[in-house]
Amino acid sequence: MHITLSDEVSAGLRALLDKEGGEARVRVRESKIGCGCKSRIVLRLSIDERSDGDLEVSAHSLPFVIDRDLVDQYGENFVVARDEHQVFTVTPD
């Protein structure tokens, strides 16, 4: 698995992980946006711990985890960015 991110995004994620401490990881996860027929599934980030069945990779010295099923669904390469609302977004590459 490979994750691409900018230095700016890396610094923002590092600050979040530093607040959590311990075994915290950056998790790539699915998230539902909207409701009803206008809803859609997107990939987002959260701070979490590693679970059984997760794949783990380091990017910019940050620990990322993702469920194997998501890798099967979206592939092994992801790009992490921040959108105009400063929300971390993830896209398959």
CATH architecture: Sandwich
The helix content, as a percent range, equals 10-25%
The CATH topology turns out to be Hypothetical Protein Aq_1857, Chain: A
Structural class: alpha/beta
State the end-to-end distance. Answer: 11 Å
Number of domains: 1
Discrete helix count:
2
What does this entry show, briefly?
The protein has 93 residues and is an alpha/beta fold. The protein is 23% helix and 48% strand.
Q: What does this 3D model show about the protein?
A:
The mean pLDDT is 93. It is globular, with a radius of gyration of 13 Å. The protein has 93 residues and is α/β, with parallel strands linked by helices. A 7-stranded mixed sheet has the order 1-6-7-3-2-5-4. The chain has one domain: Hypothetical Protein Aq_1857, Chain: A (Sandwich). Strand 4 and strand 5 (62-67) form a beta hairpin. The chain has 2 helices and 7 strands. The protein has helices spanning 7-20, 68-74, and strands at 2-5, 25-33, 40-48, 54-59, 62-67, 77-82, 88-92. The N and C termini lie close together (11 Å).
Features:
single chain, 23% helix, 93 residues, 7 strands, Hypothetical Protein Aq_1857, Chain: A, alpha/beta, seven-stranded mixed beta sheet
SSE layout:
Blueprint: E1 2-5, H1 7-20, E2 25-33, E3 40-48, E4 54-59, E5 62-67, H2 68-74, E6 77-82, E7 88-92
Parallel strand pairs: 1-6, 2-5
Antiparallel strand pairs: 2-3, 3-7, 4-5, 6-7
